[in-house]
Amino acid sequence: MACFACGASHDVTSLQTVCRQCGMPLRVNVPLPRSTPDELVDQSLASMWRYGPVLPIPVEERISLGEGWTPVWEVEDGIFVKDESGNPTGSFKDRGMSMAVSAARLLGAGRVVAPSAGNAAVALSAYASEAGLRVLVAIPNDTPGAIIDRCGELGAEVQMVEGDISVAGKWLAANRGPDDFDVSTLKEPYRVEGKKTMGYEIFEQFGWQLPEVVIYPTGGGTGLVGMWKAWDEMEAMGWIGTERPRLFCVQSAGCAPIVKAHDEDRDDIEVWPDPMTTAWGLRVPSPIGGFLCLRAIGETNGGAVAIPEMVIHETTEEVSELLGVDFCPEGGAAWAAMNLMRESGEIEIGQRVLVWNTGAGESYR
Ligand SMILES: Cc1ncc(COP(=O)(O)O)c(C=O)c1O
Ligand SMILES: [Zn+2]
After folding, report:
1. pLDDT at residue 365 above 90?
2. Domains along the chain?
3. Rounded CA gap, 223 and 261, in Å?
4. For atom 15 of ligand 1, which residue has the closest CA?
5. Nearest atom, ligand 1, residue 116 CA
6. Residue-wise over 5-38: b if at least 16 C-beta within 10 A, else e?
7. pTM, entire model
């Protein structure tokens, strides 16, 4: 395991959070087999674990509820939706938490803890319960009640915090005990390993090819970083060349630290003051992995788009009705960005465009 920022190496046989030397996110370096996609994928598994040989958890240690391997639909000519609403707890957070909880249990965590804007808390509660681990989640007190209730039903201890996810993170840092293992976004290395299956799945579902454009609603950025890592692994295995889909990061205009940094051509993130969005997963004012998102966007010649709150909510309703897919507001933001890009000519005729609906709208109702 090595630091994404400074390269310092870290022990994989013990629990790790961020880099000991510089405090930045760690990257799990999985030994890559020499196989073709056909040889590598276990077609009998309808979950993200079908990519087992490139995942860092042995079969007998997996904590799985059937996450991933979600459908892709071509909803208009060249426009595809990857729909994560059918995951076990209703969002793509299940991918990361399945992997992180498997690793945490394997490496001897006592209790798992995390701050969350919503869906991650439910996912962590479900996987920790499956693994027999205790769990504490710290949640902003204006998070939808349905999310808080579900965490409680799944056996989690829930701490409400006045403020956004970064305040919740600070509360946890000040209050956690010696047995507690923090699985916060990109402050724990295995969630990205779960999320990278998104990059593999797209490739398989497009017939061992990648689309030209991928549009992703970004909060902490694990999905963006995960797909980017997956494609690098696929290149190292000789599955693809140097070409990549253009990666577009979508945020709410009420909390858009990555878009701002991208527009200003910076390679670091400034804290977004007073983050306001009810696309809860996007309310991340100071993502530790923001510099990686900027790298992924830059290397793929992608971009970053902020969508006004009103447009997010109108679009979410419209597109859910139009397509009969239960869009979450984060997915609605991604769809709105696709509309804008189509109007502005950023998306060209004939290009295949994938829009991520990262979870179910139902979870927030
Ligand atoms: C539904 C939904 N979409 C997108 C995101 C943002 O995810 P990431 O942290 O990978 O950027 C979240 C995070 O909470 C979420 O719940
Ligand atoms: Zn480092």
Report:
1. no
2. 72-91+190-364 (3.40.50.1100), 93-182 (3.40.50.1100)
3. 19
4. 281
5. 14
6. beeeebeeeebbbbbeeeebbbbbebeeeeeeee
7. 0.97
